[in-house]
Protein: Glycine zipper domain-containing protein
Organism: Candidatus Defluviicoccus seviourii
Amino acid sequence: MMTTTTGIISRPVRLKFAAGRLFVVGVMVAAAVSVAACAGQTTGEKGATAGAVLGTGIAMVTGAGLATTIGAGLIGGAAGYLGGEAIGSRK
């Protein structure tokens, strides 16, 4: 396979980074849509949703295994719920 280099980074490496950025943008859009679609939820429930999405997305982007990704989603959801409830109790 022939690769062309322009500047410092070769073309296949640049395409890999572009695909990673596209994935991250997709995860963020999914997080924004899921939070925006939950108009009837309490602050704690919204925090749990956002925390679970962010925890899972970060674990997936870093290349963690399936068990770690699920665990990150659960921990993110729990932390988001507690943070949301703390914010909700101040209102």
Summary: The first helix runs from residue 11 to 36. The CA atoms of residues 5 and 33 lie 38 Å apart. The first strand starts at residue 5 and ends at 6. The chain has a mean pLDDT of 78.
